[in-house]
Fold:
Amino acid sequence: MLSLLIRQKVITATIISCILIVILATTAYILAADRVGREYISPKISKSFADIFQLQLQQDPENIFALQSLSNSMVQHYKVQEIAFYNIKNERVIYACSNTCVHNLPDSFNKKVINNGSENNPDRHIFNLQSRTNTLSTDKDNQTSSYLGTKPLKLVIIPQNGLAKFFYADTVSTALVIVSLSTLLLFFLYNCIRFWQRSPYKRLLTTIEEIQSQPDDNIRFDLNDADTAKLCEALNTLIIINDDRKMTLMKEKEKAENARIRAIRLSNETRTINEKLASEITIRRSVETQLTHTQSILDSIIDSMPSALFTLDNNGFIIQCNQQAADWLDCERHPLVGKQLFNYIKELTDFNDLIRQSLAENSVKKIERLKLSLPIGSFPADITLYPLKDNNLNGLVIRIDDISQRQKIEEVIMQTEKMKSVGGLAAGMAHEINNPLGAILQGIQNIKRRIQIENDKNKEIAKSYDLDLSSMIGYLEQRQIIKFLNNIQDAGQRAASIVSNMLQFSRGTQKQLSPTHIKDLIERTLNLARADLELKNIEIQLANIDESLMFHCIPSELEQVILNLLQNSAQALSHYQPNHPDKNWVPHINLSATQDNKYTYINVKDNGPGIAKDVRRRIFEPFFTTKDIGAGTGLGLSVSYFIITAHHNGQLDIESKPGEGACFTLKIPNQPLLPK
Structure:
């Protein structure tokens, strides 16, 4: 539709409108005719049929067969669907139906049923017929008539309300003729209007062609035609405006040419200046790039330092800080600028005089092993004060170093050196004690063997002296001499065990390391200690350990170490339980194991009383114990420490706070290393 010309669109729209109007008019005519037939003609025809039946009843009221034949003739030859007669008892006595009916009339008379539930139905007509004599009644069996009284008959007629077929055919034909004539008339009128409309526009096109072909500025459009007068006037005005624009354009071209000449001259001057500026900008960019690169390197170096750096002015306000400083204070770097450092690190307040002295003397000052309490936690630190040697800026740089790891290393070194010294001493003492201790144990065994009643040699000698061995044994037991001998033997065996541990502690031989599953090792050790732990009502909590984790160790020695740690924790928990304020407190020991690329970590952690700081420093020393006299030798943890450090090149660390339990950590290389 969009691709059609305007005249084509007009013709198409007009024809479609005419067709729609004719269709609507024809439909309205048919509906009106149908209504007239239904509401006027059909009642008249039904009344005529009722008059015929009334006439028949007047002539021969007892002839039911004549009424039936007349009804059949009407439904066959006239536009009647159904006919029914009802007697005084509302019984249907006569019925006739066309071939196309659907038997709507009932066997007994009911006005609402006949009218499809309504009081009046225009498609169904009910008449009361009077007979000359009595009302007709029919016996269905013998088809005989009888007189039942003076009552009228009811006649129901359902006519065929549809119009004749020729009516519809004639109506449609007439509509088509009207549409055809209307189309021809419209086409004729369109051509006339088109001719009248195109004449002025043809004159316009002729004038436009003249303007295009002839360079004459005096040609104008004709204003005499009323249809195009306004359009021609607008075109003439446009021509005048165009002429004015041509004059203006020529003047502007002259100005533009003059400006172009000036621009060329200025461009040459500008080019020279730009070349100089470009050279200066290149040099400046190079310098800025170098400065930026240098600043970036400096910032990266400062931020990558493990130390916290603060730059302060003379009044103690923060000018700059590195990322480590911000991380320790648990905040962003920007908000720290302009704030007092003493508000964040309270411990520096005690060294305010030292800071002023460093600024006044322009000398480096140092504060060692200061305990700091920061948002990330508490730790010892070394603090160094560096005055700024800049004429334009007065202040100082404060460097704070966390020495927690260094202190641990120093303690390990001191412990190692101490162990070496003690190990040499223990070896000498063990050799010196071993000989007389062996003689004592041997003497006790000889004494006990020579007082045995079962020994034949003893019997023989006792008989020679007329001595009763049973009486002698009774005397010894009565005087508790045998008990004293057993006590001496037990003490000697305990001393022998101490000497054996001392020798093992001092022995530096390296045994063969073998690959071992961590989980299997821990489970074997738990099996050894489980009975004792359960007897003391201590709960064992074993973390989920991957069965595939392996490392190199001496299994028997490592089992001994873990067993020593479990026994120490069990003893601490058993003594702590009666004094615990919480009666529902349950003692437990947690065992866990983890592994990274280099090391295996085995943790033994309890919820006991914890270990004081002064005790932790000496806990791995030989013969050092916090247990009661005779309850321990003080060598268990020392031997364990020696096994881990000397035989496995590992570490044995402890973390504990009073009241929060203790955690022993075994750090062992996954692969075998050379002895330390």
Q: What stands out?
A: The longest strand covers residues 377-387. DSSP finds 16 helices and 18 strands in the chain.
